[in-house]
Amino acid sequence: MEFVSVREAAEGLGVHDSRVRQLLQAGKLQGSRVGGRWLVDANSLRERKKFAPEPGRPLSARNAWGALAILSGCRPPRLSDPERSRLLARLRDIAAHGEVPAARIQKLLASRADVRRYSVHRGLLPTLLDEADVVRAGASAAPRVGADYVAPGRAEIYVHPERIGKLEAAFGLVLDARRGNLVVRVPPADAWPFLVSAAGDADEGKDAPAAVVAADLLDAHEDRAGVAAVGILESLLESAALRRDAK
């Protein structure tokens, strides 16, 4: 059997040492007492990390967009210096763990937008993705930001909250939460300038910044999408831009 210390187990789960001891005493983690100290079964720890819910709560939409801006090497708009410092501390903590904690990041950023799923004729998707009011996201932008992921027949976009009604009418979008092939995320209006920042002066075919695309892919809860998202996030968390912003 392979064992790790309580401290190592706590770091792996992202919790305090006392929580690990509670889990051991409750039988939710397997371990042994040696000389009055707990040692944690490494296999049990791996299973707990795989299936346990991630600690903490989602960031507010404003802070979620602030974190995405920092990951993109931008100064977060509309955040105070203390708020920015707290976000930087969280991102440094995530980066320090080495392996990207995908489930933790997905949960932190989950409140960034209102998510709607629609059914739309497949033949209309290319035209819709090139609309001036649209920012391509997730699977629809992944290849353009260097992610090895495609999802034929499906589209993901961001739309400004003041333009969603226009888009619904123009394309005859029908809400279909279960089988819709179009995922539309409606962010706060003040996040829109950052969302379109990666597109430059393009009038059509805007793509979301890479950090946003990674967050969208994590929402899919699909292995291939998750691997692609982690590939993007590894680079961003290690980037010189994040280190410079942290100074």
What would your notes on this structure say?
With 247 residues, the protein is of the alpha+beta class. It has 13 helices and nine strands. It has a six-stranded mixed β-sheet. Strands 1-3-2 form a three-stranded antiparallel β-sheet. The longest helix has 16 residues, at 81-96. The protein is elongated. 34% of the residues are buried.
N- to C-terminal distance: 43 Å
Provide the helix percentage: 40-55%
Largest sheet: 6 strands, mixed
Q: Which descriptor suits the 3D outline? A: elongated
Number of strands: 9
Could you say which structural class the secondary elements and strand pairing correspond to? alpha+beta
String of helices and strands? EHHEEHHHHEHEHEHEEHEHHH
Query: Which strands sit side by side, in order, in the main sheet?
Result: 7-4-8-6-5-9
Give the overall pLDDT as a whole number: 87
The portion of residues forming beta strands comes to 5-15%
Low-pLDDT ranges: none
Global Rg? 20 Å
